Every structure is written in C-alpha cells, then in structure tokens.
C-alpha cells in the first residue's frame, strides 16, 4: 500500500500502488464485513454502484473469498440504476450480473433489481416500496438516528465530475431529504432517465466504501480530500458522510494530486 490516513472528518483514506492491489484489499474488506454481519444478524445487505466499481470487485470471486463468504446471506441492491431494460448495455444490473453476480451463489431472490417495465417515477416508487417491505421483514435495518434504511455496506464509485450514485453536481436531487429513492430524467451523463438513492439513505449506512481508480479522477479527489470548500460548493462526493464508517479505496493514479 502506498499510504493510509485516518482522519475523523473524511474517513479512512487508503492509497494503493495499483488498481490490482486496491481490488485485493477491497475483497478482503468486503469479506470481513460479510463475516461480521452474517455472524451478528444473519444477513448482509450490500448496495452496488455501476461503472468501474464492478471491475474492482473481481477479487471477491477468487480464493479464499469465493469459498469462505456465506453468499446465501447476501442481499444485493443498487444505489442507482438506469431506466433501461435489464439486458440493455447501459443497465447497471447487467454490468453487475456479468462481472460479479453470475460468479457467486447469491440466491436469485436476494437480488433486488429495479422493475424495468416501469417509468422512472414508477420504478423509483416501486423500489422504495420494496425497501420498505424488506425493512418490515428486518432484512434491511432502519437507522434509529435518521429513520432511513441503514444498509450494512454501500460500495460507491465516483464519476470524474464528482457525482456519486445518480446525484450530480448542481442538480436539485442532491438536496432530496424525504424520498428514499428518487428519479431523474435529465441526467447530465447518459442515459438521462435513472433512479437513485437519496443522500439521507446513503448517509444512514453502517459502512460506505468509496472506490476510485485512475488519473482521470485525480482532480476531483484533490478537491474532495484536499480542500476546505464552503458547504455550498460541495461536490456530491463530498456530501458522502455516513453515520457509520467511511473508507476510501484509491489507487496511486487517483491519489496523484493529493
Ligand atoms: O453513471 C454512473 O457513474 C458512476 C461512476 O462511474 P465510473 O465508471 O466513473 O466509476 C457510477 O458510480 C454510477 O453507479 C453510475 O450509474
């Protein structure tokens, strides 16, 4: 590992010599949390992003994790999804299925994809209803502090503009304070129609990992981790501030301007 810092305000920042090292450490971290939550409450709720995050999960399907993780206890969700059919190249579900889910024995009934037959509004409402049902059944915990769902682990990527989930810089959706799942029809990054968890849900998580690799993201990483911007200037990635633990997984290139 190239470096690590642990500051209360920004979480634990780990910088790895390569994306390969990052992927190895990420697998170890996820497997460790899986063991902990399965032991403590018999379930592990994991929220995925789309994009480059999925490739960085590749070491989880290798030994020793493929055999030691209790995959049957995993429940999979998406922090955001594009409103396209599940077999569309833009689908975050398809990306995760091909790169990760098809390689591990998570029960199909524990994989909560959006209803791709609905409009953006309908899909967001439907996903929020699904989450409420799972809270009622105690698969998902509820934060006693915020009243929003408290996922065990949220695995977030970050776009080169500092967006997380489908919460984009300057978009009013970053201020959503009531909905669990919101919809967007004017995403600046295609495709335009998406659904996304709101910040109150993201920030109620027990653990959030922000996984960022590549020189193309170095400027935003410098802004996120190296500056003291006023509250009004914050990029979405700077608004990630969970009630639980925040861990940054950066490769050397992403951290090159720190
Ligand atoms: O559109 C999206 O982009 C972000 C970032 O993707 P990346 O390829 O730059 O890592 C992703 O986290 C999000 O889930 C996705 O919908």
Describe this structure in words.
The structure is a single chain. By secondary structure, this protein is α/β, with parallel strands linked by helices. The protein has a single domain, classed as Rossmann fold (3-Layer(aba) Sandwich), CATH 3.40.50.1360. The protein is built from 7 helices and 12 strands. It has helices at 19-41, 53-56, 65-68, 92-99, 120-136, 199-202, 218-226, and strands at residues 3-7, 11-16, 44-48, 74-78, 80-82, 141-142, 149-150, 153-156, 181-184, 194-197, 207-212, 245-251. A 7-stranded mixed sheet has the order 1-2-12-11-8-3-4. A 3-stranded antiparallel sheet has the order 5-10-9. Strands 6-7 form a two-stranded antiparallel ribbon. A hairpin with a 6-residue loop joins strand 6 (141-142) and strand 7. The longest helix has 23 residues, at 19-41. The radius of gyration is 17 Å and the shape is globular. The site of the ligand O=C1O[C@H](COP(=O)(O)O)[C@@H](O)[C@H](O)[C@H]1O has 11 residues, from loops. The ligand O=C1O[C@H](COP(=O)(O)O)[C@@H](O)[C@H](O)[C@H]1O binds at residues 49-53, 80, 92, 157, 159, 166, 189. Pathway: Carbohydrate degradation; pentose phosphate pathway; D-ribulose 5-phosphate from D-glucose 6-phosphate (oxidative stage): step 2/3. Residues 18-248 form the Glucosamine/galactosamine-6-phosphate isomerase domain.
Describe the structure concisely for a colleague.
This protein is α/β, with parallel strands linked by helices.
């Amino acid at each position: 590992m190239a470096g690590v810092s642990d500051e209360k305000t920004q979480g634990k920042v780990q910088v790895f010599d390569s994306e390969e090292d990052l992927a190895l450490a990420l697998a170890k971290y996820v497997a460790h949390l899986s063991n902990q939550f399965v032991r403590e409450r018999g379930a592990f709720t994991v929220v995925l992003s789309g994009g480059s995050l999925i490739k960085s999960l590749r070491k989880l399907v290798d030994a020793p994790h493929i055999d030691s993780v209790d995959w049957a206890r995993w429940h999979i969700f998406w922090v955001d999804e594009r409103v396209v059919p599940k077999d569309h190249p833009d689908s975050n579900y398809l990306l995760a299925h091909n790169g990760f889910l098809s390689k591990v024995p998570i029960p199909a009934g524990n994989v909560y994809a959006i209803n791709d037959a609905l409009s953006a509004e309908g899909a967001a409402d439907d996903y929020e209803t699904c989450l409420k049902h799972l809270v009622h059944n105690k698969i998902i915990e509820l934060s006693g502090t915020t009243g929003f769902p408290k996922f065990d682990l949220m695995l977030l990527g970050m776009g080169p503009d500092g967006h997380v989930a489908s919460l984009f810089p300057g978009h009013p959706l970053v201020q959503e304070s009531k909905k669990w799942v919101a919809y967007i029809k004017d995403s600046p990054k295609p495709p335009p129609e998406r659904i996304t968890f709101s910040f109150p849900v993201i920030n109620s998580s027990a653990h959030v990992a922000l996984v960022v690799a590549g020189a193309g993201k170095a400027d935003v990483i410098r802004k996120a981790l190296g500056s003291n911007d006023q509250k009004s200037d914050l990029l979405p990635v700077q608004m990630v501030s969970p009630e639980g633990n925040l861990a940054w997984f950066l490769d050397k290139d992403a951290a090159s301007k720190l």
